[in-house]
Design a protein that fits this description.
The protein has 18 helices and 20 strands. It is α/β, with parallel strands linked by helices. Strands 1, 7, 10, 11, 13, 14, 15, 16, 17 and 18 form a ten-stranded mixed β-sheet that branches. The longest helix has 22 residues.
Length: 505
């Protein structure tokens, strides 16, 4: 396929490009730290046997006539809507899921690896509310969605620009995916995600990607990933399965994701909860292999606890962290990539709780060897809101995680012994060549100045600092170029489809 030819963005863009430092984009994290394996072989087998019993003895409901027919033809036992899948069948189907794939961006320099020791960061997804640049909570709009796609492009460590950082309430639902997908393709040149609100929306997504990448390239390569949720416990519904068939038939992966509220939609037990979500995810991944053998798929999980006082979700607590470690170990047992969620909080602003919750959710996921890390920036209010301030602060934190999990480079010790000898007792190392050439990684939003300088600079809170940085990045943003013919073809497709959906309304 001839990859898209870039064009200039005009005089204003050229001026910005000369005056603003371009982001230095980081590749997928090639993890050199971890993963942690909590379980021995007997523990892995305990969860595996539990998942197999759920799949065969209890069964998974597939609320979709086509899926039921497919499962029956494949050799499963189908009782009404409940599908009982024997271990031999599930494992045979799972054997064709690739352990790793390349996720292509329209700019080849932004393509990333998914699976094995690689981890990628994707933005948040689907918030109905926005905490704006004025600090006011309101319903999210398309302008916010586009702004967050711009901020994703500006982030050096955000690998996936996504599709739905905020749910645009000002666009009719049947047409919403047209704006989302076309905006994701135009406003960022990183890999994107696809719409799953209907079979038609999924097909439109694939068709738009074929315009930009070419039909043959899309059929042979991964250019989009869909997020599909299981209705835990034990239900895959028609809407999700409709979308899954579209993506799998086009050789595009999905994150097959049970949403487990430990203590509510699933057991509070780490072992019981993980056995349940493994069974649900395996059922979805295996079904995708019935649709198209060898299609990449990702074992997904969205994990949080539930407050026993209010029933509200709790983020960043210990038990979901431990469960994420178990999920990672089970994904390695099945030799498939896995997805989880991080950097979310129940807080309503970028405060100390938001920092604690986000860090406490990220560390177990990274230490568990997660490959596709969703919600890596912006979430507040238990994922109901996305904050401009927290988004940019989270984005800078991702650079720190990238540095830590990239591990240590081998170094000869002799030069440092020479430095120590030269400096001698009571000296300092500020002037050595190594200190000048190899500074520590720094987060520009974290204030380490004296108290007096902090006061002189306005005594700004973290919330203020984040808002100012979001405004700066949006002002410095330059839209990545897209071939004019491809852009026009995309616009024509969107306009034609919009007329179709408007007529059907």
């Amino acid at each position: 396929m001839a990859r898209p030819i870039v064009r200039s963005g005009g005089r204003e863009a050229r001026i910005k490009a000369r005056t603003a430092a371009a982001p230095v984009y980081l590749p997928a994290v090639n993890r050199q730290v971890g993963p942690i394996n909590l379980l021995g072989p007997d523990g892995v087998q305990k969860i595996h046997r539990g998942a197999m019993r759920i799949l065969w003895d209890i069964g998974i409901v597939f609320r979709d006539a086509r899926a039921l027919s497919h499962w029956k033809q494949a050799g499963a036992r189908v009782d009404g809507e409940r599908v009982h899948i024997p271990e031999e069948l599930i494992m045979e189907l799972m054997s064709s899921v690739p352990p790793r794939y390349t996720f292509h961006a329209r700019n080849p320099a932004r393509s990333v690896q998914v699976g094995d020791n690689f981890s990628i960061f994707a933005n948040c997804y689907g918030s109905p509310f926005v905490y704006g640049l004025d600090g006011v909570r309101r319903r999210s709009e398309l302008a916010d969605t586009k702004n967050f796609l711009r901020l994703a492009q500006m982030s050096q460590a955000m690998h996936i620009s996504g599709i739905l950082p905020a749910e645009p309430q000002d666009v009719p639902v049947p047409q919403r995916h047209l704006d989302l997908v076309s905006s994701a393709l135009k406003l960022a040149d990183k890999p994107i995600m696809g719409s799953v609100i209907s079979e038609a929306a999924a097909q439109d997504t694939i068709d738009m990607l074929r315009i930009v990448f070419g039909e043959e390239f899309v059929d042979r390569n991964v250019v989009v990933t869909a997020l599909l949720n299981c209705n835990t416990p034990l239900v895959w519904d028609e809407t999700m399965l409709d979308a899954l068939r579209i993506y799998a038939a086009a050789n595009q992966p999905a994150l097959l994701t049970p949403f487990l509220l430990a203590g509510a939609s699933g057991p509070a037990s780490p072992f019981g909860g993980v056995a349940l979500l493994v069974a649900e995810a395996l059922a979805g991944m295996a079904y995708a292999q019935i649709v198209r053998r060898g299609c990449p798929m990702v074992m997904g999980v969205a994990l949080m606890g539930v407050s026993m006082k209010t029933g509200a979700p709790m983020l960043g607590t210990a038990e979901p962290g431990l469960m994420n470690l178990l999920v990672g170990q089970m994904a390695r047992h099945y030799n498939v990539p896995w997805r989880s969620c991080t950097m979310w909080t129940g807080s309503k602003m970028a405060d100390i709780q938001a920092g604690y919750d986000s860090a406490n959710s990220m560390w177990p996921v990274m230490l568990g060897g997660c490959n596709f890390i969703m919600h890596s920036a912006g979430f507040v209010e238990g994922a109901l809101g996305v904050s401009y301030s927290k988004w940019v602060q989270d984005s800078y934190q991702l650079e720190g995680y990238h540095r830590f999990f990239s591990g240590l480079a081998d170094e000869a010790l002799e030069p440092f012994l020479s430095d120590i000898q030269s400096v001698g007792p009571g000296g300092h190392f500020l002037g050595t060549d190594h200190t000048r050439e190899n500074p520590f990684s720094m987060n520009p939003l974290q204030n380490n100045d004296s108290y007096e300088k902090w006061l002189d600079d306005g005594a700004k809170s973290g919330e203020q600092v984040g808002v100012e940085e979001a405004k700066r990045q949006l002002d410095a943003y330059i839209e990545p170029s897209l071939d004019e013919d491809l852009s026009d073809a995309l616009d024509e497709f969107v306009a034609a489809k919009r007329r179709v959906y408007a007529a059907a309304a």
